[in-house]
């Protein structure tokens, strides 16, 4: 009877304690690694989701502008109205790459609540690897009024514009009082590489302007 009681009162040996600690430490390291991987995966998923939302928002803004492009002469800084209805190329809008400037309609102003019309002049440019949208309050702007600049998408290293003339794509548009048949926009992005959008236009032609007036 005495021997049985003595055997039951024996504790863990040092080897057993060390083995238990080693197993616990191994499980802790594994659990911590899994937890870290879950956090990193969640962060990466969030970044990808936010980047995708930004891209979708960018394309939505551009689609709204380019699909509402209209044939209208406009003035820059109070100068005489130009016969070219669309400006594109290097240094347009002070872009570090190519830029573009045109007039669009359909800018909703319900019950004329805002001090503007439904026709507005907009443009796009690259500044510090960021695609920016430039907007003037009115198509015929004054040099005393600065346009509103809105960053649209970061990580855009280059932008190119091409227009479809009567026969082929070209990088400039000098045809007076006439809109091209289409505009092709190519974005070089750090995350998605090269993205291209093509916008079909009605190819409108304006009559010759009245002396001293704007069509």
What can you see in these coordinates?
By secondary structure, the protein is of the alpha+beta class. The chain has 2 helices and 9 strands, in the order H-H-E-E-E-E-E-E-E-E-E. The chain has helices at 2-8, 14-67, and strands at 87-90, 98-104, 120-127, 130-136, 148-154, 156-164, 169-170, 182-189, 193-200. The strands form 2 sheets. Strands 1-2-3-4-5 form a 5-stranded antiparallel beta sheet, covered by helices on one side. The model has no long low-confidence stretch (mean pLDDT 84).
Give the N-terminus to C-terminus distance in angstroms: 116 Å
Strand content: 25-35%
Radius of gyration, CA atoms, in whole angstroms: 31 Å
Task: Point out poorly predicted stretches.
Answer: none
Largest sheet: 5 strands, antiparallel
Strand order of the largest sheet: 1-2-3-4-5
Percentage of residues assigned to helices? 25-40%
Tally of DSSP β-strands: 9
Give the mean pLDDT: 84
Shape: elongated
- Broad structural category: alpha+beta
> How many individual helices?
2
Order of helices and strands: HHEEEEEEEEE
Structure keywords:
215 residues, elongated, 28% strand, alpha+beta, five-stranded antiparallel sheet, transmembrane helix, single chain, cell membrane
